[in-house]
Design a protein that fits this description.
- There is one protein chain.
- This protein has 305 residues and is of the alpha/beta class.
- The protein has 2 domains: 10-174, P-loop containing nucleotide triphosphate hydrolases (Rossmann fold), CATH 3.40.50; 192-304, 2-Layer Sandwich (GMP Synthetase, Chain A, domain 3), CATH 3.30.300.20.
- It contains 9 helices and 9 strands.
- The protein has helices spanning 24-32, 75-90, 106-115, 134-145, 164-174, 192-207, 243-250, 255-272, 292-297, and strands at 10-17, 50-55, 59-65, 93-99, 122-127, 152-155, 217-224, 231-240, 275-284.
- Strands 2-3-1-4-5-6 form a 6-stranded mixed sheet, with helices on both faces. Strands 7-8-9 form a 3-stranded mixed sheet.
- α6 (192-207) packs antiparallel against α8.
- The longest helix has 18 residues, at 255-272.
- The two termini are 30 Å apart.
């Protein structure tokens, strides 16, 4: 339980679980203070575990943003579910995040069923409270109390930052005494190359139609900075499943691909703190989401989890 007088150094791993599009990545970026997880209004955009590190004077909180839990429709979906469910066994605390606007539904019921065999403490985090009336919130809290004995129920707004500090204090109260796993200035365990490909994918998600998002991957081909040069050269390939999708990504006279590149370059320069020359290509790999060898090539390795 939370004890405000506790002066020992706490550290631990916290998994953020929830249906697609409840605000997990927005929450992680808010807590860490910079973008390490991509955000989109299209569900299921997080595919790998994204680890964010928050180091405070008295604690280090290592957050794992998992893919949204959903029923898989292909091998990539199976991988995403395995990642999300395996983290339940590996962490010190679970944050079950729900969307205040959407209430309790079959998706939440599906996730709570997964909790029945989990011994890890679980918080219910009700996100997007800025979008509902306080009376609706009280009713929502009561409905969830009937479903599962959550250790804590914390309403927040990841977008505005409302109640985030309170949640962090309560999280610390449930973490064990432990070491500082990462240097104080490290905010993620993912290499820069991974984050850069995710930033490119985010821009493509924002700009393209509904048929594109889940059939798209981004692969880093080259990232180098020549001696004496201030510019980092990044070359990446956007992978899609059909020729028609390739045409959409490239756009008329290459305008879409150019826009994706311009927007991604701004975020990449912010990440690296230097000028970037970004070169993007588009390639068709038919049905890659159902091919285990290509999933491995694109970084989706379920043997790591």
């Amino acid at each position: 339980m939370y004890n405000a007088n506790d002066t020992t150094f706490k550290s631990g791993f916290i998994s953020i679980i929830g249906r697609p599009n409840v605000g997990k990545s927005t929450f992680l970026n808010r807590v860490i203070g910079q973008k390490i997880a991509i955000m989109s209004d299209k569900p299921q955009t997080t595919r790998n575990k994204v680890q964010g590190v928050l180091t405070l004077d008295d604690s280090q909180l290592i957050f794992i943003d998992t893919p949204g839990i959903h029923k898989p429709k292909h091998k990539l979906g199976d991988f995403m579910m395995k990642v999300a469910q395996n983290t339940l066994k590996e962490v010190d605390l679970i944050l079950f995040m729900v969307n205040a606007e959407e209430g309790f539904g079959r998706g939440e019921e599906f996730i709570i069923e997964k909790f029945q065999t989990v011994k890890t403490p679980i918080f219910l985090v009700i996100n997007k409270i800025d979008l509902i009336h306080p009376d609706q919130l009280l009713a929502l809290i009561d409905s969830y109390k009937e479903k599962y004995p959550f250790k804590e129920i914390v309403p927040i707004s990841a977008l505005t930052g409302n109640n985030i500090e309170k949640l962090l204090e309560q999280i610390k109260g449930y973490l064990p005494e432990g070491p500082q796993y990462y240097p104080a200035d490290q905010v993620t365990d993912h290499p820069e190359r991974f984050i850069i490909t995710e930033l490119i994918r985010e821009k493509a998600l924002h700009l393209t139609r509904e048929e594109i998002p889940h059939s798209m991957a981004v692969v880093m081909e080259k990232m180098e900075q020549k001696p004496g040069k201030e510019v980092v050269h990044v070359m990446a390939t956007i992978i899609v499943e059909r020729d028609s999708q390739k045409g959409i990504i490239i756009g008329k006279q290459g305008k879409m691909l150019k826009e994706i590149g311009q927007r991604a370059r701004i975020d990449i320069e912010n990440l690296l703190g230097t000028k970037v020359f970004l070169e993007l290509w588009v390639k068709v790999q038919k049905d890659w989401r159902n091919r285990a060898s290509q999933l491995r090539d694109f970084g989706f390795r379920d043997d790591e989890y």
